[in-house]
Amino acid sequence: MRRDSIFYKLFQQQPSLIFQLLENPPVNAEDYRFDSVAVKEPKFEIDGVFLPPQGKRGIIYFCEIQFQKDEFLYERVFAESALYFYRNSERFSDWQIVIIYPSRNVEQSNIYPHRSLLNGDQFHRIYLDELGDIRQLPIWVALMVLTTLDKSQAPQEARYLLTRTEQEIPTSSSQVIIEMITTIIAYKFENLTRREAEAMLGITFEETRLYQDIKEEAKKQGIEQGIEQGIEQGIEQATINLVTKLLKKRFGELSPEIHSQISQLPLPVLEDLSEALLDFTSLADLENWLTEVKN
């Protein structure tokens, strides 16, 4: 399960979510933006940072999502965070670190050398299984907890969160949450297709944002009638056009070979590509994905 990408999407949609986990959030929490950074020489990759508003010298929050035990996590996190702050200290007034664990048993064993930092007010360890009943949590925090539930419990709680979303969240925002819930379930049950995950949750393809985007694209192509007559036949070309447009927006012009490969993909695989491309960081990721599908 690719939890890093799920949390990345969560924080992109709701940057202030991280501050719902902290006892003393900044007063301008709603103004923070989420980003990812790299520290070169040596090369460090930081899962994500929460940046104060541009032009204001506020606190930077480093965030790490850790679902597997790493016995050198704290050494790495302290080193990369301190180095990044050192190189950008003129931009920030202070720095803090947030580590999100599914439970305490994932935390590294030897924490004694870091006791001062770990017990100070600059460091925050969040254990998702200790946040309380998922049904009592704010909806965005509940999505984080949903990623930790086992397969026997996750579908039931996911359906509950869908119902709660319909009742509590404005329509303009609810679709994003529905997409996140579906994505979490699809990742958790890796053998399920996206359609099967939607069926498990009682969601129809027509309710998803992907369908709405494809339908809008289809209107532009003048094939809306094809949608009404049959999803599988009517929207395949519109899906190809939409996926191609998204890829061009991220990576620039695509080669004729890549165009050809995408145009030959069946609709279910095109839907998978529309999800997968959100995790691509380069054109090489797309090429590798297409090669794996072909094989």
Strand arrangement, major sheet: 1-2-3-4-5
Whole-number tally of structural domains: 3
- Total beta strands: 5
Structural class: alpha/beta
- Stretches where pLDDT is under 50 for at least 5 consecutive residues are 224-231
CATH architecture of the largest domain: 3-Layer(aba) Sandwich
Q: What does this protein structure show overall?
A:
The chain has 295 residues and is an alpha/beta fold. It folds into 3 domains: 1-130, Trna Endonuclease, Chain: A, domain 1, CATH 3.40.1350.10; 132-203, no CATH class; 210-294, no CATH class. It has 14 helices and 5 strands. It has helices at residues 3-13, 73-87, 115-118, 139-146, 154-168, 171-188, 194-201, 209-221, 224-229, 231-234, 236-251, 256-263, 267-276, 283-294; strands spanning 33-39, 44-51, 59-65, 94-101, 123-127. A 5-stranded mixed β-sheet has the order 1-2-3-4-5. Helix 3 links the parallel strand 4 (94-101) and strand 5 (123-127). Helix 1 packs antiparallel against helix 6 and helix 4 packs antiparallel against helix 5 (154-168). The longest helix has 18 residues, at 171-188. The radius of gyration is 21 Å and the shape is globular. The protein starts with a helix and ends with a helix. Mean pLDDT is 81; it is low at 224-231.
